[in-house]
């Protein structure tokens, strides 16, 4: 019973709220607590253009970001931006506000630094994935430049199954060079949005066929990969093939942050809870 309840994960964060306020916090090793930044604070010297610019999208008070921030700072990524927003009632329109704000923020960085090439990596957590996807779509309209990479940690149901104008793999591949996703649970019917889609396979939960998701698990597992190449995921297209051993001869790739960016396909990372 105890084991079952551990496996009975859930994540019901849907993107159906209006945006109350957005904050963009810039974190560096010198300012580990971060400073709130607006477009008017962006100057040529305030960004290290030689390093990737990481934007982490999180609905306020949903996930503890101290792990992901610390690991990125440890990796010497000097530009970490935390985008947090709050949602209240139902309106997707209001979400455009945060999308525009962030896209303009990034466009201003391009403008102020005068750089043709900046390495932009968007990391969306749960509903933050949807904001990140929309920013990736908006940015080329403003700057004619593409996002280098978009990592979605637990794309939400409403995101992947939204047929009405929601992002899909085709739109994404036009606007982003490389898309990777991490799911805490495998669902054969979900659209596979990424070039690489990782699925966490919980060893003690072989009978857990529920589709419940746990974005904290996806986030925490990804955090472990930022400064390590030790987590390896096995290529496989279904739980059945994984469990029957049909994938044992398939290739393994590094899971998470350091995934080779020419990789494609679905991969399972076996974890113990
Ligand atoms: C977030 O996690 C860190 C490290 O695990 C912990 O020290 C901190 O208290 C947590 N913050 C919150 C608000 O729970
Ligand atoms: C930044 O924007 C201003 C006003 O739109 C424009 O005149 C200027 O050329 C831009 N600078 C760069 C480096 O793109
Ligand atoms: C996937 O879709 C098929 C056909 O609609 C359905 O029979 C099946 O139960 C679905 N599987 C899951 C895991 O939802
Ligand atoms: C989700 O995963 C985290 C991290 O492994 C765990 O602490 C938490 O209990 C899980 N949540 C649920 C609802 O099982």
TrEMBL record:
Superkingdom of the organism of origin: Eukaryota
Residues annotated as domain Lipase: 56-189
GO BP term, example: lipid catabolic process
Signal peptide bounds: 1-21
Keywords for this protein: Secreted, Signal
A GO molecular-function annotation: lipase activity
InterPro entries per record: AB_hydrolase_fold (IPR029058), Lipase (IPR013818), TAG_lipase (IPR000734)
Cellular compartments annotated: Secreted
This protein's GO CC annotations: extracellular space
Protein family per UniProt: Belongs to the AB hydrolase superfamily. Lipase family.
Protein name: Lipase domain-containing protein
């Amino acid at each position: 019973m105890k084991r079952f309840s551990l496996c009975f994960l859930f994540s019901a964060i849907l993107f159906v709220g209006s945006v109350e306020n957005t904050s963009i916090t810039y974190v560096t090793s010198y300012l580990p607590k971060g400073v709130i930044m607006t477009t008017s604070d962006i100057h040529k010297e305030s960004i290290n253009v030689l390093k990737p610019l990481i934007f982490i999208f999180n609905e306020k008070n949903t996930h503890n970001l101290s792990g992901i921030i610390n690991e990125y700072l440890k990796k010497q990524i000097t530009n970490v931006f935390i985008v947090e927003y709050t949602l209240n009632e139902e309106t997707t329109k209001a979400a455009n506000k945060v999308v525009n704000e962030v896209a303009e923020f990034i466009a201003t960085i391009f403008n102020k630094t005068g750089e043709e090439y900046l390495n932009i990596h968007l990391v969306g957590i749960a509903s933050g994935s949807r904001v990140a996807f929309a920013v990736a779509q908006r940015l080329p309209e403003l700057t004619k430049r593409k996002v280098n990479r978009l990592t979605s940690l637990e794309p939400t149901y409403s995101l992947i199954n939204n047929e009405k104008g929601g992002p899909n793999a085709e739109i994404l591949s036009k606007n982003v060079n490389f898309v990777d996703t991490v799911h805490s649970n495998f669902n054969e019917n979900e659209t596979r949005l990424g070039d690489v889609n990782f699925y966490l396979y919980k060893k003690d939960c072989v009978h857990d066929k529920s589709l419940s998701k746990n974005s904290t698990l996806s986030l925490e597992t990804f955090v472990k990969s930022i400064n390590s190449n030790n987590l390896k995921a096995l290529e496989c297209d279904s739980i059945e093939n994984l469990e029957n051993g049909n994938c044992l001869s398939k290739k393994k790739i590094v899971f998470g942050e350091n995934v080779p960016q020419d990789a494609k396909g679905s991969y399972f990372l076996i974890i113990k809870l």
